[in-house]
């Protein structure tokens, strides 16, 4: 996956930022299409060929994912082996039922980085 820190992207041209966004989009769609049972099923049911999602304009082709989907099919969102799950985080459920997310070491590193920016 492409990772670019805020300090790096802040000085890029509009074209470079769009390239970064679209390359990240392609990599993410490819990754979930290969590794997530939920998205494999969703793409198949919606008739979406993941390789056709190339540009930000293609996002409208994607079916939406709901909170209900995350609750009902939680484990099907997991894209890694369960042994790589380092932590479980559960939402407060303020607006309904709580939802649990499984986090890997990479997820925790990304969250720590995001926290350091705020």
**Percent of residues in β-strands:** 5-15%
Counting H and I runs of at least 4 residues, what is the number of helices?
5
Number of strands: 2
The residue-averaged pLDDT reads: 91
Cα(first) to Cα(last) distance is 23 Å
Give the helices and strands as they follow along the chain. HHHHEEH
Tell me the structural class.
mainly alpha
Number of self-contained structural domains? 2
What does this structure look like?
- The protein is built from 5 helices and 2 strands.
- The protein is mainly α and 118 residues long.
- The relative contact order is 0.10.
- It has helices at residues 6-9, 14-35, 37-46, 67-72, 105-117, and strands at 85-90, 100-104.
- The protein folds into 2 domains: 1-63, no CATH class; 80-118, no CATH class.
- It is globular, with a radius of gyration of 16 Å.
Describe how the helices and strands are arranged.
Elements: H1 6-9, H2 14-35, H3 37-46, H4 67-72, E1 85-90, E2 100-104, H5 105-117
Antiparallel strand pairs: 1-2
